[in-house]
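Sample intake — Cellulose synthase-like protein G2
Collected from: Quercus lobata
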Amino acid sequence: MEGSLPLHICHVNPLSIFINRSHTFIHSIALALLIYYRASFLSQHPKTSATPILPWLLVFVAELVLSFIWLIGQAYRWRPVSRTVFPERLPEDDKLPAIDVFIFTVDPNKEPTLKVMNTVLSAMALDYPQGKLHVYVSDDGGSPVTLHGLKEAWRFAKWWLPFCRRYRIKTRCPEAYFSASNDDDDEGFGSSEFITERKKTQERYEMFKKSITEVKERGRLGDNSRITAQDHPSVIEVIQDDSDDKVQEDQENIPLLVYVAREKRPSHPHHFKAGAVNVLQRVSSVISNSPYILALDCDMYCNDPTSARQAMCFHLDPKISPTLAFVQFPQRFHNICKNDIYDAQLRSAYSLMWCGLDGLQGPVLSGTGFYIKRVSLCGSFIHEDVDLTELKQSFGSSNELIKSLHGNYEPNAINGQQELLKETQVGFLYDSVAEDFFTGFILQCKGWTSVYCNPSRAQFLGSGSANLNDLMIQGMRWSSGLIEVGFSKFCPLIYGPPRMSFLESMCYGELSFFPFYFLPLWCFATIPQLCLLNGIPLYPKVSSSYFVIFLFIFLSSLAKLLQEILFTGGSFLSWVNEQRIWMMKSVTFHLYGTLDGIMKRIGIKEASFVPSNKVDDDEQLKLYEMGKFGFQIPNIFLVPMVALIILNMASFVGGLVRVVFLGDWDNMFVQVFISFYILVINFPIIEGMIIRKDKGRVQPSVTLLSAMFSTIFLLVGSFILHC
Ligand SMILES: O=c1ccn([C@@H]2O[C@H](COP(=O)(O)OP(=O)(O)O[C@H]3O[C@H](CO)[C@@H](O)[C@H](O)[C@H]3O)[C@@H](O)[C@H]2O)c(=O)[nH]1
Ligand SMILES: [Mn+2]
């Protein structure tokens, strides 16, 4: 019987588990020996050595921090799983629950209206029973351009949706559909009827496009000069037909489309995206109040109309659904090229870490591309006898909203309700600019679980940060948001273990302290080099048996990374790229993000959310496609990278001279090698400084400034060492 067949299955890969656990075990022993080596040196130090203690301590601390992050990161490798779904086994259409889609946009300049509308259209065209899909667009910019775009999109949808449905089009984002070569398995493909229909639809799409670009070029619509992105009243509008367009018969089956611009006043904190999510949650609860919500960033269009049904394979499984809060799909990007120098695809997160989490208590909420159960966002206490005033304090004064909270979707496996009643707010949480990460963490602390669904066809596609500048700005926001959680009373390593599986809380801990990579990487890029130039050894002699330990740790980590990359579809090139970008990120935005997060925590800085840029920059794109770094980034990011490279060039050359003339190989080999390795991996920076002549090179003035910083560091450092 159909009903008894599972809707999904979960696969465990015994080979990966075996490799991972053995590696963790052996590598841990090596790290323990390293720590023993450092600690015993320190305890014997005063009697035996001429080596100053400070650089040793710094390198030791760096090694400890790195080992710690590595250790908690092993939780991802404990039990990675993958999943397969069987949407064809779902119940009949009339038994499927309704879904509200939330789409967020904030700035029509950074987020081109046409792109946003393509996302809206792709969501409206999801393959889901008619009348059970409602689309809400939150416009934090309060821009008439977006509202106008939405009206046009609605009109175009009346042609687009029937076309997609009739021919079962797979790519339902019109821009992607019309710019790609045809999917020849679309139904009716090649028939003359299809060809004429397609042509007609494309013409309408061109008209729609024109109406949007024209408005953009003309600038503001109407006389709204007093309305700004930061200061505007609320607008809620259900998009409806106000034209006399002759329509096709099935056009009434267009999902409800609602425009929402929440009120914003400069005096009032609006909490960025988290605030927008919560407003949509409230607005939708009095309009359609669907039990499930799909959240999408404005650039993340639906690349496969079946995602809703795939998600329902989990949500409708009675075995897991009582505790299941959300089904997360990976963020994938349409602008990634094969040689992804920036690791814009975030490979390790979406092909490794999330699978690891999925084998524990579920993946991290990732901001976009997830189907969440509405009730999980409503706090866990709504079904207890809470009095009305208390509810209104949390949810606002709407009686309709309060009524809507008493839905029939009862979660029954939530722990620690009383305690959380005191500590949590409702909906998305405001305490971090990584609101998705933080909200997901707290949900899981309440006992909710999640599932990671990563089918081979990308369900959602967005614009990845494929240039250095965007990468830095976005990375700094993420680092700052993660550190904010790490340094709060919700620190996953302390708040997590009593409330969720220990391994799961290790993963959350790893993520929230991830930006701390800045510390070991800064140390490894400066201290051994400074000491090398001053003739101070920091590592065991090549002839010593401890040398083998260091060598093993180095090779074992690199080999493990290579194995993971090859197992998840990457290449040798990705292995080099990922190491490089890790070094670059660590010495720049992980450092700044950490400082930013700490400053916010202690209250000397206000939270901010600079949205990432979704406008294609042709020049940058060309560089990225050629595998060349675009170094047109602010000095604050570029100078540290260049200064460290210059420092390493100096120490490598100085070190070589030293070992050649003084025959100090045995003592200094490791330090010479560290500089060498850093230079090899970061060759593109050297190339940018010395060889390249294009616009994206490192400008000579930057090289000069960086050289100055390196010199100052060497002088001051050497002075301190000799004191
Ligand atoms: O005040 C704001 C700021 C942003 N957004 C929207 O939030 C989304 C994400 O912003 P984006 O600039 O694209 O940030 P990313 O760094 O690309 O996004 C990742 O990181 C964010 C947290 O930092 C998450 O909210 C996102 O879901 C996640 O994809 C976009 O649709 C924005 O329009 C708002 O609605 N209001
Ligand atoms: Mn984004």
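Post-analysis note: The first helix runs from residue 14 to 48.
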